[in-house]
Amino acid sequence: MKETKKITAFTLAETLITLMVIGVIAAMTVPTIKQHSDEVRYVSAARKAYSTISNATSAAEVKHIDSYFWDFTSAKTQKWYSEVLNSIPNPVPSKASWEMYSVDGSSPAGTFTPNMWLADGMALQFTSPSNGNSKGGDILVDTNGSQEPNVIGIDIHGFIVGHKSGKAAAFGVYAMGDGCNDVNTTYACTSYAIREGAMPWFKEVGKYTSCASFVAPTDNCPKFED
Could you tell me the residue range of the domain that residue 182 belongs to? Predict the structure, then answer.
């Protein structure tokens, strides 16, 4: 008698149930994975912005004079930065400025009007110091130019060239809100993201309406003599 082989396989119903389970798991995990990936990308961009500003400031000081004597609203200072950065013309001429939004992305927080664009997509805005000093200045950076989200603490960050005490010996490039060199509450998310490598306000949308709670403590700040 000819022997027959019994072939076993999943039924159509079993296959459909399996696919449904896989779909549910994917729907639950993919957004979380993407959110983490986006957070890592934004943190990396913030750190790159800090490194770019720091290196450019040092290079310009070597070519010219100490940054303590710079006027950050002058075309001359911006030209010095342009000399050491890979600056390009505005890649989107129709967008000379754009709206910024608060850390939760819900409220307008002013207009970002860059003075310089870089080949890697960053846009830089130079302004007078916001911490009350008569020396130094602020540099705001939109890490991806006019592209969204244009949110403070995510793709828009603040840096100072100076020191909150105004002492020349302490001058340098610092992330706003680092506690020791600046206590700016609007851009304090910048120092936190660079220091901690995380953006809690990005993961928990709506929980934070400002960066004020992320100003770093001043307990371990170095002391400078007059």
Answer: 12-214
